[in-house]
Amino acid sequence: MSVGLLVDVMLGLALVGLSLRVVTGQSLFSDIVQFILFGLVVALSWSRLGAPDLALAEAAIGAGLTGALMLMAYRRLVQGGGEDAVRIGPRPLLALPVAALTGTLVAVIGLVALGVQRVAGAAGDRVLEALPGTGLGNPVTGVLLVYRGLDTLLELAVLLVALLGAWAVSGDAAPGRLHQVDRRTPLVGALLTSMAPLTILIATHLLLAGTDAPGGAFQAGAVLTGCGVLLVLTGTLRPTAAAGLVTRLLLVSGLAAFVLIGVGAVALGRPTMTMPGTWAIYLVETAIMVSIAVTMTLLFARSRGLAPERS
Amino acid sequence: MTSSLVYMLAASAVFGIGVFGLITAEHLMQKLLALNVIGSAVFIFMLTVAGTTPEGPDPVAQALVLTGIVIAVSATAFALALMVRIVQETRLTSLWGRDDED
């Protein structure tokens, strides 16, 4: 057994074990923490499956952001209803046969899928052949922005609708002030002054690297959200009851830039959603990164807008 | 091929475990966690199939999964907001109303 296969087997066992812990934990809080761990192992397994872009995205979005959102929701439950709101009961074991059957079914489908030969001239191969013509080195970025631009555009729309939906169901009540750590304490201040610029640096790197190497707008946006979450938690950004003009513009910047360039292509006699050059790809990606970061930070803070706190 | 087999079996097991979690969970947040576990299993499944060919992993499938991850977190964020509101309004953490009996 080679070392690589040994690592795969260990990751596979970790995936199964951690997902078991997620659904059989004794407290909701530990379930959430196990889920974050599970997401990180998922990210590791994807780096083994030749998908480093996806590994970055899963670590930042799947484990990081989802985890942060879940922990925030957990805190709101505790604030609203105390321990009763997060109490969980024992699980009935009656569902075990159903679960075993579903798992077996997926395994059978999966084993058949593994045996199927990829058709010659499939979309993926043609992307790899045509990629040099787009000026991009990263095929995933190429698919997202050049070949399947409409999917990415609608994905941004879904993100925006999720925020609007969250606003709608959260009611009009002014956002409660979160329990915050005092940023004047030395450690918090040091953390803030070193981490906040660092996350911006990493996000910018991921964005620029995304054209040729693993990275991209979504991973960058997620890392930038990390900066936003940090600023909200330390009280540097304060939730407000209304979204200002700047916030609104930033929220739609990704969609707007994408639509303007995509439809502008028609005026120039090209098909819709074509990118006129590498500059357009960078522009759209930057706008996507900013709107993802603002949308996600607002979803985390559960507020309409954010304003800097003067101290 | 053997590594693919390992991840495919793991994805199947995780999918089954997620279904178990979804069915047996009472608390709405546990249901959301289980749904996310099922989602991850599907993503592992897709990436395993996309990564088997000798010409290199399929970028279209990878882009599809990336889109899927973002949609999943959007839906989860909305569902969490909905759940917090439901608990605020009804004082119940599940859809069965059992918490109301005492």
Structure notes:
The complex is a heterodimer of chains A (311) and B (102). Chain A folds into 2 domains: 1-117, NADH-ubiquinone/plastoquinone oxidoreductase chain 6, subunit NuoJ (Four Helix Bundle (Hemerythrin (Met), subunit A)), CATH 1.20.120.1200; 139-311, no CATH class. In chain A, 71% of the residues lie in helices and 3% in strands. Chain A contains 11 helices and 2 strands, in the order αααααααααβααβ. The mean pLDDT of chain A is 88. Chain B is an all-alpha fold and 102 residues long. Chain B has a single domain (3-90), classed as Helix Hairpins. The model of chain B has no long low-confidence stretch (mean pLDDT 88). Classes of the chains: A mainly alpha (311), B mainly alpha (102).
Instruction: Provide the number of structural domains of chain B.
Output: 1
Q: Strand fraction band of chain B?
A: under 5%
Strand order of the largest sheet of chain A: 1-2
- Strand-residue proportion of chain A: under 5%
Average pLDDT metric of chain B: 88
What is the CATH third-level topology name of chain B? Helix Hairpins
Topology:
The complex is a heterodimer of chains A (311) and B (102).
Chain A: H1 3-24, H2 28-48, H3 52-81, H4 96-115, H5 123-130, H6 139-147, H7 149-170, H8 186-209, H9 217-233, E1 237-240, H10 245-267, H11 278-301, E2 305-308
Antiparallel strand pairs in A: 1-2
Helix pairs in contact in A: 1-2, 2-3, 3-9, 3-11, 6-7, 7-10, 7-11, 8-9, 9-11, 10-11
Chain B: H1 2-24, H2 28-50, H3 59-90
Helix pairs in contact in B: 1-2, 2-3
